[in-house]
Write a structure and sequence with these properties.
The protein is α+β, with helices and mostly antiparallel strands. Helix content is about 30%, strand content about 20%. Mean pLDDT is about 90; it is low at about 1-10 and about 15-25.
Amino acid sequence: MASKFSILLLIVFFQSSSWAKSASTLENFIQCVSINSELSVPVITTLFTPNNSSYSSILQSPVFSLRFLEPTVPKPDFIFTPLHDSHVQAAVICAKQFGLHLRVRSGGHDFEGLSFRSESQTPFFLIDLVNLRLINVNIKDETVWVQSGATNGEVYYKISQKSKVHAVPMGTCTSLGIGGHITGGAYGAMLRKHGLAADNAIDALIVDAEGRILDRAAMGEDLFWAIRGGGGGSFGIILWWKIKLVRVPETVTIFNVVKKLEQGGTKIFYKWQQVADNIDEDLFIRAINRVVASGTNSTDRTIMNIYNGVFLGGIDRLLKIMQASFPELNLTRKDCTEMSWIESANFIGLFPIGTPIEILLQWKSAAVPPALFKSKSDYVKTAIPEIALEGLWKLMLEEDAPTVMMIPYGGMMNRISESAIPFPHRKGIKFMILYQSNWQEGDKNATEHINWTRKVYNYLTPYVSKNPREAYVNYRDLDLGRNRNNISLREARAWGQRYFKGNFERLVSIKTKVDPTNFFRHEQSIPPLTL
């Protein structure tokens, strides 16, 4: 239990806080957290206000989208960094008791910053799960229990230390926090072979709106269904995930092939669209399209198509598959490198080949560093015609630093029902598109860069999914709509049906049952029927 001295110090810290109603309310809240926590750790050691020298570094350190750290963006009145599951439970109990709004962050990768900022509910405080990162691997049972603050990279590494032939089918970015990642579905380089991480989640621990810690059996199948792909921040705070391990070969093969427009890039990319979702499901070929200098004159620019591949097998079988299905890429033995699966996790995470796997334990390290950017997503069911691709390339050449990345689907993704979990983007999807514009700090044209993503998104309207135009919830996009203070279910459907299709109505029904007062909420959280 926190000492009276610690409580008094915190009251002094909070006296200037905009949400503090009175010193007595603060004292009651702090005492409440202490009473409801199993560990007798003084609250002051886990709680940071703007008056604390560590506040800014804690707020900023895991943030991926830097535009939400700008001075005009509302900041949390304080940050709580729990050391134990019961700390999270206590924070929920006490926040509800004293009418305090909260946000929850596991890794800081929310593309709209909704895990650590709030437009509609201010003031608010942040629960940062950075200290909750235990990983318990059980090779005998072929499972792993992971706390929400652990990253993909840490999980990959810990499994690799127990087995060379086991892995989990999670994201390609190694610094993602597990808690929020799996709530959105969580795709990676093995989605065509094993589906999503959410498809392989078999249990969880969650703090619900009543402050109870529930496992799968206690929460029931409806809520367990909802948290596996229904988006973060709507149903509770995930403490742990239990994920089924999958088998991987001791040797996998990676390759990186670059083609420019001058090398017949458009025709090669058109063929990629036709084969990437139908090719052997052991093979994942991601297409990353960027603008680069076309020659020694830096003012001349062209499009570079990067084909980034991971194959669950050796070079010989890979070359046979590519020769039969995608000879246009002209993949050769010298383009390929055999390595262990854990080494391929570094590669697909965009670290240079040969980077020591221990980099995966450095949770603040990422091959793609935090940046100022705006992103949008789409799903494609029919190959985009060559003439439309040429128009896309022209639009990319108008922007300073654009990326248009395509993620192939097919394989296992075709065989899982779109209602198996809330993530609905399944049979018939050829690939997902991520549009992104990046810019540097001090660039006064941020609005123009953001508008470019909207322009290219509008341009591709005829060539992507329709009714609804689907989007990936983990690539959060507030352009699709947002909850205001007066939440409208009709307005929420505008974005909810894009992320979840027909599953949105079931999510609303479950939300109504487990959180009717809408305690867990944000700008794109699932609303209950009662509002």
